[in-house]
Design goal:
Structural class: alpha/beta
Oligomer: single chain
Number of helices: 21
CATH topology of the largest domain: Rossmann fold
Strand content: 15-25%
CATH superfamily of the largest domain: P-loop containing nucleotide triphosphate hydrolases
CATH architecture of the largest domain: 3-Layer(aba) Sandwich
Number of domains: 3
Number of strands: 25
CATH class of the largest domain: Alpha Beta
Distance between the termini: 28 Å
Length: about 575
């Protein structure tokens, strides 16, 4: 058995007891450097810092122009195989890579999404990385940080209130009530609010109608903030947000409701990225947290535009597997930012490979099957199709892939060797990583592999042209990324697409909202099936302010619920006033 001592970040199940402290204990025992020192080491002038205490700061957007003449860092995307209930440790690997680059004398900056408090108090209990590859201060990162999510919640709900008020005040815009698409949001998992009726009571209490709540991470304003390039671009995007349609079929926008200006005021500070640090002192830009299914699942453009000039490498992470998060990173975020990736890290684990073989019944919260932990390189090979398809997907965009094997104590050398042989057979570099237990020292091999891959010449390309109609864009993604034979567009979706193209939105990029648990649109299909059929498109929605159209291909929840025993039951203050229960 290999003598590795690693793992994944919060939420992992079935990891044998490690001889290292908990994530929270490690974070608290770490030296938190003054945030001004972190900025200085990255040559970020102090004049652009807006301190939030000693260990967090916002960065003024004036830094974008001030740093623009500096050389650009190598731009590295971290993505993963299709997620399993086990967790693959993508954020932990991102942090470990930054620290590993530091160990070989390179200056690396991280750009990550901010955790939503819904999952923090729901299942995860935290999302700051894990072990000795974490972002600190952990408590600040997982709980409120600088209030960006609250600003988004307030701005979103302000527009909802102005919409309902306009209807109450005689409906001067002629809004067709059944066409209203703007719901309300909050950053708490609460299934009881998925569908509600508002306006009940007396006449002065408003007009009754059915609506609902989404989690704040699912708000269009969240991804709008992530894709805005500066405050004026944000203001214009806010004006383009569509809340519904009038009786003539024309879009009714936030600008029509005279709400965009006030929303911009509420979001002005939230547009500034937050500066934190890794345990080993690398700068981390934490900003925005859009959903990985109905939205882009990537951190902000402004964070990247600053971070690309802060050192030798800028590492960012995309949500879910490479079929979802990486594709949206390439086709949506990179189009807006103008930045092109130099390499991509594909995170996998021995356990994930075995899970994709389909031989094991793995359920969240349940003990791992003993057979999953037994030495079996043949089973790793049996589940390799998913890994190989994601490598193929990354090469479709002209990006050099590096496979990061996040090692566990229960792994065997023969299983690592099986993954290495498979990946190298298609020209990918491979590194076994122990960054969870060993910090940057456990990711030095990965850092060197990434450095080699990023130094190669590459010819980055998008998957589709924006001037294609919407249905061909959807079909291109489905057939190229997911292995579908085509798409079946429902009559409802076809009518919606026809409306959007008639209104001039046909040139927008497309986001596919599908399950993250399979490379297909069917959550039950593991691996990478090649004959699974046509992808159903049941509904298509418009995010005009964010700047894309999204096709819903399955049952996608935008307001999570709580489990029988959510993490909120374990999070508390101890007798010394210290937070406990985060993981």
């Amino acid at each position: 058995m290999a003598t590795v001592r690693s793992g994944v970040a919060s939420g992992d199940q079935g990891v044998p007891s490690l001889s290292i402290p908990s994530d929270l204990d490690i974070a608290r025992a770490s030296t938190v450097r003054p945030i001004a020192d972190i900025a200085a080491a990255a040559d970020l002038p102090q004049e652009f810092l807006v301190p939030y205490g000693r260990d967090v700061a916002k960065i003024d957007l004036a830094a974008i122009d001030a740093l623009a003449d500096r050389p650009k860092a190598k731009y590295i995307l971290v993505t993963a195989v299709t997620p399993t209930p086990l967790g693959e440790g993508k954020t932990t690997t991102s942090v470990g890579l930054a620290q590993g680059l530091g160990r070989i004398g390179r200056r690396a900056t991280l750009a990550l999404r901010q955790p939503s408090m819904g999952p923090t108090f729901g299942i995860k209990g935290g999302a700051a990385g894990g072990g000795y590859s974490q972002v600190i201060p952990m408590e600040r990162l997982n709980l409120h940080l600088t209030g960006d999510f609250h600003a988004i919640t307030a701005a979103h709900n302000l527009l909802a209130a102005m919409l309902d008020n306009s209807m109450f005040q005689g409906n001067p815009l002629g809004i067709d009530m059944p066409s209203i698409e703007w719901r309300r949001v909050m950053d708490v998992n609460d299934r009881a609010l998925r569908n509600v009726i508002i306006g009940l009571g007396a006449k002065l209490d408003g007009l009754p109608r059915q609506t609902g709540f989404d989690i704040t991470a699912a708000s269009e304003l969240m991804v709008l903030l992530a894709l805005a390039t500066d405050d004026q671009d944000m203001r214009q995007r806010l004006g383009r947000v569509v809340v519904g349609y009038n009786k003539d079929g024309a879009a009714v926008t936030a600008e029509d409701l005279h709400g965009a200006g006030s929303m911009a005021v509420l979001l002005q500070d939230a547009l500034k990225p937050n500066l934190l640090q890794t345990i080993e002192g690398q700068p981390v830009l934490v900003h925005t947290g859009p959903f990985g299914n109905i939205a882009t699942g990537n951190s902000s453009v402004v964070a990247d535009r600053i971070g690309i000039h802060m050192g030798d490498y800028l590492i960012t992470e995309a949500g879910f597997g490479a079929d979802i998060g990486a594709e949206k990173f390439f086709d949506v975020k990179c189009r807006v930012s103008g930045l092109q990736p130099d390499a991509a890290v594909l995170v996998t684990t021995v356990r994930a490979m075995k899970a994709h073989s389909g031989n094991h019944d793995i359920r969240p919260g349940k003990p791992l099957p003993e057979a999953l932990l037994a030495e079996n390189p043949d089973e790793v090979v049996a589940g390799a199709a998913n890994l190989m398809k994601h490598l193929e997907n990354l090469r479709t965009f002209g990006v050099s892939p590096v496979v990061a094997i996040n090692a566990f104590p229960t792994d065997h050398d023969s299983e690592h060797a099986a993954i290495r042989k498979l990946a190298e057979s298609v020209g990918a570099r491979v590194a076994v990583c122990t960054h969870f237990a060993d910090g940057g020292a456990g990711a030095v091999d990965l850092a060197r592999a990434v450095e080699e891959a990023a130094a190669e010449s590459h010819d980055f390309t998008y998957l589709y042209d924006l001037d294609q109609p919407l249905i061909p864009k959807i079909e291109t993604i489905a057939t190229s990324m997911y292995g579908a034979s085509g798409v079946d567009v429902s009559s409802t979706a076809a009518a919606q697409i026809a409306r959007y193209e008639k209104l001039g939105y046909g040139g927008l990029p497309v986001v596919i909202a599908k399950t993250h648990l399979s490379i297909t649109s069917d959550a039950k299909l593991l691996g990478a099936p090649t004959d699974w059929g046509r992808m159903p498109v049941r509904e298509v929605r418009l995010a005009a302010g964010a700047g894309y159209v999204y096709a819903i291909c399955g049952d996608v929840r935008t307001m999570p619920g709580l489990s029988g025993h959510p993490a909120a039951e374990r999070i508390d203050l101890d007798a010394q006033g210290q937070i406990v229960g985060l993981s």
